[in-house]
Amino acid sequence: MPDCRQILVAESETHISGNVLFGENCHIVGESEDGPRGKSPLAIPERNRYPNLILLCRNHHGIIDKDPKSWPIERLHQVKSDHEVWVETQLTLGAKSISDQIYSSIANLAADRLLLSQWDAITDHAIRGLVFSKFIEGAVDFYVTVHRANWPGDKPQIELSATNLANRLQAYVEHYQILAFTPDGNCWQEDRRWKAKWRADCDALQDRSEKWSSTCIRLLFNLCIAINEFAAAIRFNLNPNYFALQGWFLVYDSMGVTNNLQETWYGPENYQEI
Ligand SMILES: [Zn+2]
């Protein structure tokens, strides 16, 4: 569970494997028809196999089984696959040289703070002008860290792509925050409170809003390209598994707000400068 991440094994001097497992193997589709999430065409023998199991701490096992409505099958599969991606990106922690450790920590910082495993959801909201506070805070943390970093200099492709990503993030966040605000602390949105009553300059404000919004989208596309370049640099120089499963990062518009209400995926390839 992303907010838990308790270690679920402990070293043991007496156990034959050298470890004891105290996490619990939980069933995604219930082990029997009457169990939590048990109503499923999945054959009974399949229910005890790896694809239907998720290792959780005791607390979270209790939570998902006592409240299966909040924890349906699809959500648990999502939690499990997000965690598998997270583990793959963390594997580089075993890096040997000091410089590889620095590069690995930047790669891990990007994965964690930019919520890269949720990139589709982030872009799908951003295209409608909504950005999670968690993403904004993470973006600021990432670009400040990169700007301050004392780079070792032996993998210039990583350093250049990380710096470019930091600049693209900063451009996006700073432009976005010109007209956006956060009413509840969780999510940012455009400040349209001026629309509540008529005012003499409302045409000018509307015009400003539209220009702002199209620049936000252009900067989001640039950001998407920068993420792909950074991920490719990490894959090529450090860890071939880095977001390899997820593949190319795209900009997702599920409601088609940019394309006549047709669901659309964009794969921007060239930076658009002003
Ligand atoms: Zn837990």
List keywords for this structure.
46% helix; binds zinc ion; mainly alpha; 2 domains
Could you give the topology of this structure?
Layout: E1 9-11, E2 19-21, E3 24-27, E4 53-56, H1 58-66, H2 73-90, H3 98-113, H4 119-126, E5 131-132, H5 133-148, H6 156-179, E6 180-181, E7 187-190, H7 202-237, E8 251-253, E9 264-266
Antiparallel strand pairs: 1-2, 3-4, 5-7, 6-7, 8-9
Bound molecules: zinc ion.
Strand order within the widest beta sheet:
5-7-6
String of helices and strands = EEEEHHHHEHHEEHEE
Number of helices: 7
Sheet having the most strands: 3 strands, antiparallel
SS elements, strand count? 9
Mean pLDDT, nearest integer? 92
Ligands bound, unique: zinc ion
Task: Tell me the Rg in angstroms.
Answer: 22 Å
Q: Give the helix/strand class.
A: mainly alpha
N- to C-terminal distance: 42 Å
Query: How much of the residues is beta strand, in percent?
Result: 5-15%
Q: Describe it for me?
A:
The protein has 274 residues and is mainly alpha-helical. It has 2 domains: 9-71, no CATH class; 95-266, no CATH class. It contains 7 helices and 9 strands; from the N terminus they run E-E-E-E-H-H-H-H-E-H-H-E-E-H-E-E. The strands form 4 sheets. The protein has a 3-stranded antiparallel beta sheet with strand order 5-7-6. It has a two-stranded antiparallel sheet with strand order 1-2. Strand 6 and strand 7 form a beta hairpin. Helix 3 (98-113) runs antiparallel to helix 5 (133-148). It is globular and about 75 Å long. The model has no long low-confidence stretch (mean pLDDT 92).
